[in-house]
Design goal:
3 helices, alpha+beta, TadE-like_dom, 4-stranded antiparallel sheet
Length: 164
């Protein structure tokens, strides 16, 4: 024989609704935080790969390609390296600004990083990418962590100049 079916007591009614009302806002806050930081890490990964590809292209250019042009002070190959990085970042739509800068390290007479002018053979080349990430979806929740300002991500890739 089967056991008789009991009716739920009146004291137990509504406890699921109360538990859901308590737990649901906490779960939404956790999910919004996870999605926001996943988006930040995705933007940083794309920026890092864009800087890597731009620096790799710039490092492999020949001396003839890295020579200055009559069009302006900056070497056209450095502009192409910046364009490579910017094209890879175009899909992000991070909500803020995106910039990419190609730099060369000459090493003489005083070692410093500067724009690639092409007058000397660089020892190292670098591409710096800056991405400002803001959150359009969960702004009320993430504003607590960011004070309403975007998160600025910087990815730098420097490598030896191997062109020749």
């Amino acid at each position: 024989m089967s056991a008789p079916i009991r009716k739920p007591s009146l004291r137990g009614r509504g406890s699921v609704a109360v538990e859901c009302a308590i737990v649901l806002p906490i779960l939404l806050l956790l999910i919004s935080g996870l999605l926001f930081f996943a988006r930040v890490f995705w933007c940083y990964t794309v920026a890092q790969k864009a800087a890597h590809d731009g620096a790799r292209f710039l490092a492999a250019t020949t001396l003839r390609e890295i020579a200055p042009s009559s069009a302006g002070p900056v070497v056209p190959v450095a502009v192409v390296a910046q364009k490579i990085a910017m094209d890879e970042l175009a899909e992000l739509h991070p909500g803020g600004g995106i910039s990419a800068t190609a730099l060369c390290y000459v090493g003489s007479p005083t070692p410093y990083w500067d724009l690639c002018y092409g007058y000397d053979v660089p020892k190292k080349v670098s591409v710096r990418v800056t991405v400002s990430v803001s959150d359009p979806f969960f702004d009320p929740f993430t504003e607590l962590f960011t004070d309403g300002s975007p998160i600025i991500l910087r990815a730098v890739m420097a490598t030896d100049y191997v062109g020749g």
